[in-house]
Amino acid sequence: MWAVTGMFQKNSPDAFSSYHPVILFLYFCVVLFFTMFFLHPVLLAISFCSVFLYSVQLNGRKAIRFNIFCMLPVTVIVSLINPLFSHAGVTILFYLNENPVTLESIAFGIVSGGAFITVIIAFSCFNKILTSDKLMYLFGRLIPVLSLMFSMTLRFVPRYKAQIKKIANAQLCIGMDASHGNLLQRVKNGIQILSILITWALENAIETADSMKARGFGLKGRTSFSVFSWKRRDKTLLATEAALLFALLLGLGLGKFESVYFPAIRIAWPEGKSAAFYLAYALFCLLPIIVNRRENIVWNKLKSPD
Length: 306
Fold this sequence. Notes:
Blueprint: H1 2-9, H2 21-37, H3 41-59, H4 61-85, E1 92-96, E2 99-102, H5 103-129, H6 132-139, H7 144-154, H8 156-173, H9 183-214, H10 232-253, E3 259-260, E4 266-267, H11 275-285, H12 287-303
Helix pairs in contact: 1-3, 2-5, 2-10, 3-4, 3-5, 3-11, 4-5, 6-7, 8-9, 10-11
């Protein structure tokens, strides 16, 4: 397990996140689309392994601990709960309290749990590399209000977490934090801290909105500065994504990714020429890993003496 961490932990900063925001957004859209809407076991395994490795590359051992000790139990719970409530399927394994437990419901529970944790891990990577400035660049001209709200939401947790620490420390200095007094007094102090945080949040939101309005945000014909520009490497990677996406859509149209669980399990497994479509999906999902490994190889060559 730690060998996987060591494979990524000491490398240079994430190179994939330095590419154009359109490329990053397209990558996550495709991965999330195939993960959520096509519960094919092979596709799901590819998606999970890819986003798992990328999350480890971004967050190191912390990601491994979170994925194993938090996400894995979720998969087990979903897999066990689904057969208790869903009794559809033709392959009855046994009866539990006079209710049939079917193979199809167990299989569907396993893939549903896998898809759930894969989406969560993918969104953690999404939140890490698609920062607020990139989202503003992508949607600022099309839907400026929504892009501003989305950008503010992404920074909600870390910023408000830091602010509540400041408020708690200030209240601690005057003996009115949540650790002083009896139980009733602690509850009152906690509510007071929360009230101060909400007041600050509302005031901060109004100030942000007034500031953006004063700068002409959302006006028709408004120009804006952007640090993002299309480079040769961006165009190359975008062309690669487009070619792989075309192959995936072709495979989808030919029914190579079919997966049906009710009333009976019917899955199109990779065999013969159809394996090429699964390979295309694997290459697409592993693009961040491939890009980062390539950048690391080039960087190490530049550092090495002639």
